[in-house]
């Protein structure tokens, strides 16, 4: 590029084999460093892009998380669980289980037992012709000391207040809520006392408590005098049609099945379609909304124990668990279990155990309840002095409550309220609380604890088809997820606002913010005198050492602002050498300092673009581009031409002013 002063010969062909090996080794090492630099540069580019677009990436992540959570909430709160057939629930190691259960369906054969060497039927019903002529007995005058039962509601100022609050309810580990009311231990003790007017919590405490039924269904329920009821919540058991009833019972008895929307969808998916008259076969389907408990077993206690609240005008009710098919005439069952024995409540004895304490151990062993909650219940019962007797009045103290037959009297109604409150306060296993309520509530005496074989004669046991799903209504289960989604939504909005209104620049922040400087200068021809040295390096070898004047204009007479000097080895192996540097030194009132320009581009071109790699003084930390162009393309050779230099400089962000 430049050639004046003198040249130093440097041969490209070295005869020294050892030096040649060193040179090749150095080239290979540089190649490895170049590859490493490439990886480092790629990493820097990735980091740079991440730092540049982090608000957008954060926004996408938050939006994706929000959509995912909303879809889970929507799916869980509106979609029923995928229907499962009975076959899907059977255990593979019991191949005959399905045949056994399906074989029980629609069986009408009686269950018998041997008494005194004679086989007799467990449930002795009237003959079919007598059942057709059977009429309800006249309502007898009750000799019960309880004449009236008052149910506590939140509007009752006298009994609605107490020392039991929602926060205490959580601490006590109970499940009292707006449906049950918040019964205190003092109120619990008072409810067991026999008074002429009994006051008790018995569900339906508040209009906001849940268990909503349509007005049309309520009108139907109010017209029932005798009701056979069952329920399936959470997509649980299938619905089995009752059999074995007389023609008279079909006209006098209501068959009611309580479902929730999950069970409705699951049954419809299996082909159990509810007709326009709200019936499936003989069952009137009543869909309950806004169930008050997460535990579906506890929701099932409402129609099981509070039939007198749901059917206020009914004289009699028969409860049948959803795992069973009722197969006897309801009026004949009332006659055999209540009227004939002059009882007001009939319930089956437990088939395996007799003591509540033995039952508690079995409940824990079968994982029907946690050891902690069972221990809380037993501790309270021991404190109340519940005896460990296995028999009350000559009969088992423990009941198997899958079938409950009762007359709706003030005594039985109060008994069922007390039983329901115990189930809510402690575990959902009603077998544990039944003996306690029976022992403590002294007013109920006319009770028929019939044997297990009688229960087997009343129903065909089908077993539980599938496990009921936990309640997933928004106000119980989904509330934490809703709160989480609201928080994520606020975070998304915050990120969007930050991305839109952040004071930090979002496009090319480095280029737009760094100070710049542009200069136009000239490197003049060497002044040739009589004694001035002027040697041209050979085309294939040489070291070019030059020193020229730097002016503001193209003329030789222009004002001098500095010097251009350098040392260049035009050999390919030294193309990236630190020796090949052009120094522009400035000595003017505007600029004082120097610039270093890397001269690695050695091809003979009229216009060269070289990199500015540093500087001193006013040009400290300068980076940029230096464009060299020969001014006289025809009159001068490359070695003695005048060059026009355009400098485009960039400086880092600093507090000091831009030079010049």
Overview of the structural elements:
By secondary structure, this protein is α+β, with helices and mostly antiparallel strands. Helix content is 35%, strand content 21%. The strands form six sheets. The chain has an eight-stranded antiparallel barrel with strand order 18-19-20-21-22-23-24-25. Strands 8-9-7-6-10-15-12-16 form an eight-stranded mixed β-sheet, sandwiched between helices. Strands 2-3 form a two-stranded antiparallel sheet. Helix 1 crosses helix 18, helix 10 packs antiparallel against helix 15 and helix 15 packs across helix 16. The longest helix has 62 residues. Strand 13 and strand 14 form a beta hairpin. It is rod-shaped and about 145 Å long. The protein contains 19 helices and 25 strands. The chain folds into two domains: 147 residues, Beta Barrel (AOC barrel-like), CATH 2.40.480.10; 322 residues, Spore Coat Polysaccharide Biosynthesis Protein SpsA, Chain A (Alpha-Beta Complex), CATH 3.90.550.
